[in-house]
Amino acid sequence: MTDAPIAARRSTLRTHHGDTFDDPYEWLREKESPEVIAHLEAENAHTDAETAHLAPLREQLFQEIKSRVQETDLSVPTRRGDWWYYSRTEEGAQYGIHCRTAAVADDWTPPVLEPGVAVPGEVVLFDGNVEAEGHEFFSLGAFDTSDDATRLLWSTDYEGDELYTVRVRDLVTGETFADEIPNTGGAFFTPDGTGILYTTRDDAWRPDTLWLHRIGTDVAEDLQLFHEPDEKFWLGAGITRSRKYLVIGVGSSITSEEYIVDLSGDVTAEPRIVWPRVEGVEYSFEHAVVGGEDRLYVLHNQDALDFELVSVAASDPQGERTVVLPHEPGRRLLGMDAFRDFATVEYRSEGLERVALLDYATNGIEDVPFDEPLYSAGVSGNPEWHSPFLRLGYASFVTPGTVYELDLATRELVLRKQVAVLGDYAPEDYGQQRAWATASDGTLVPISLVWKRSFGEPGSAPRPVHLYGYGSYEHSIDPGFSVARLSELDRGVIFAVAHVRGGGEMGRAWYEDGKLLHKRNTFTDFVAVAEHLVSAGITTTDRLVAEGGSAGGLLMGAVANLAPAAFAGILAAVPFVDALTTILDPSLPLTVIEWDEWGDPLHDPEVYEYMKSYSPYENVGDGAEYPRILAVTSLNDSRVAYVEPAKWVARLREAGATDVLLKCEMVAGHGGVSGRYNSWRERAFELAWILDTLGLAEA
After folding, report:
1. Hey, which bits of 453-506 come out as E strands?
2. Are 198 and 184 in contact (CB under 8 A)?
3. Is 550 known to be catalytic?
4. 7: which residues sit within 8 A by CB, 6+ positions away?
5. With contact defined as beta carbons under 8 Å apart, do 623 and 654 qualify?
6. What is the mean pLDDT of residues 119-143?
7. Of 136 and 261, the one with more pLDDT
8. Three-point CA angle 660, 549, 588, nearest 5°
9. For residues 12 and 22, what is the distance between their CA atoms, to the nearest angstrom?
10. Is 75 noted as a catalytic residue in this protein?
């Protein structure tokens, strides 16, 4: 075992509400300091040395992942206007290639594309591999074609900081315009294709301004269309599927406000407000034409915890409301998509996503049925206002990603494509089920389990378990397929998801019970799930590894302090483990926006005390017997700074933890490395560490 890097202690005093905290490792925040870079490189060298024995297993895992993937493949084409748009991958290439081929006017059945077979009439719009040449990191942001299909815009990030540069190409001549718009967020064409609407961020990384750029003019002349001054609100924009309205949306974690601009007139016209913001009221809307009248279908939570759907006149959105789908406790309405002749509603009930068709005339809904007990499904890839088909995405823990189209005339679900899993994969060889743990306050916490049947049913004998959790922002961890996960399942590991409070699996109340001054429920729920897996005979503490990322990394840090003996190992990816320091500093990216989720410890002493009681960095216990810990981060992460896990690891070592590793990608962002082969190698690294911790490195 090599000697771990020991960070120097340098006192930095932080005083709030009469409490002073001496932070010995805050100096690691100086990202440009050669000393900090040297420390991170020493951490990487230490991690490399400590995991060198796993190199053969990492390579084996990478090859297993690669062998299951159809490396040369194509997506199901999506129709927009007179073209079918699709992407394809080629064996050995890191990034996707975006293409199109001409459509036949009245034929809405997508062409069947075969891997390795040339597509008749293919036009390559954008090759990510060409654009990525010479760069260690590459991310494609915005990607849009003009309504007349003659122009393409795209944006790229070569640093991982999520600041994108927009460029434009003439698809008739192939010429790339001189226009370059740096430091953008989202971007899309105006309906006439002569302008670009785009957002920019403030110094705190908050999208706050919408701009109009006229192609061929100097960016310095761009027109500001909208600015949101409130530091708690972010801004986004888009165009309704009907192409009738420009929508400008501003929102915090708990409050929304939307504006519209009628695109039959000037895009620079004064935006018209839909509903004025009211603290704690969230809403979104879709435009539909019903009985010849422009209507806005508004999904909102005013006096409706799990949301209600109403319809208002677009000419007077603050006027009379017609209830379309009333609030129904336990049925969390998630979203709506409006089309010319019908709409879809997505909602969550009993922990699962549902998709339903909405009849404009009767306001009745009709569920789209799916057979598996655990699955995820949603509406996706439907840009056209009118189509005879509705496209849906579907997956489960055992069913690979699947594209269906619902024939709206016959209600038949037509299979368009299922992701190929090469080798001998058979879904029936694997099982999935829901279990329940009882939290300390009596709440039943759902658990999803997936395993390979040949090793026996869960509980028949203790098995290694990989337990995943998140539990923030009402984000649900829904059943999904993973090729990489098969390498665990095929070695006898049971994969489990703890659907803890703070997520959205069981409705809005589930989320409310795991945020602000109820945040501890997220952590104690996860510990309760771990304890249930042991008491039910599914695993033992020495064969249980936990994983979480970002806000789920906060969960990992918290449970490491709460119940270090409950786990053999903890993998924390881009972990939010120095939460209090971050949320106290409004100059840091996104901090003020986050106050609605965590509370405002800067101005509220109760929130300060509560957050200090659970923030992982402040609560590392001297002399505690911590499990093995692997923290993974990225130097250019703009959401959770590298300094958080760097400080946490330094403090853990100071407290006596003996098997703690930090892996810092020096050229990457919040999502890790770019390129599919690179991401497979990154996951193989993590899986090798997990399997080694579970005692399966030789399996």
Report:
1. 465-469, 494-498
2. yes
3. yes
4. 25, 28, 39, 646, 650
5. no
6. 95
7. 261
8. 95
9. 6
10. no
Average the pLDDT over 472-483 and give the result: 97
Cβ atoms within 10 Å of 594's Cβ, excluding its own? 22
3-state secondary structure 367-393: ECCCCCCCCEEEECCCCCCCCCEEEEE
Query: How confident is the model at residue 362, as a pLDDT?
Result: 97
Angle ∠(466,472,474) on CA atoms, nearest 5: 110
Structure tokens at 572: 């924390």
Active-site residue (options: 550, 615, 634, 674): 550
Please give the C-alpha separations between residue 212 and each of 192, 199, 206, 225, in angstroms, as whole numbers: 13, 9, 18, 7
pLDDT above 90 (res 48):
yes
Q: And the tokens for 548? A: 């979480």
Question: Annotated catalytic residue: which of 73, 157, 478, 637?
Answer: 637
Query: What is the model's pTM?
Result: 0.94
Structure tokens belonging to residue 194? 């002569």
Alpha-carbon gap, residue 40 to 28, rounded angstroms: 9
According to DSSP, residue 461 is labeled: S
Residue carrying the six token digits 């579907």:
394
Whole-angstrom CA distances from 560 to 261, 297, 612, 618 are 50, 45, 16, 12
In this prediction, residue 650 carries a pLDDT of 98
Beta bridge partners of 73: 89
Annotation says 532 is catalytic: no
Taking alpha carbons only, the member of 384, 328, 377, 383 closest to residue 356 is 377
Could you tell me the end-to-end alpha-carbon distance of the chain, in angstroms, rounded to an integer?
A: 23
Q: What angle do CA 368, 370, 371 make, to 5 degrees?
A: 155
| Helix, coil or strand: residue 166 | strand
Q: Could you say which of 46, 98, 300, 670 is catalytic?
A: 670
**Dihedral in degrees, nearest 10, Cα atoms 313, 314, 316, 320:** 30
- In the block, residue with structure tokens 């989320």: 511
Place of tokens 């090859």: 63
Which neighbouring-strand residues pair with 262?
245
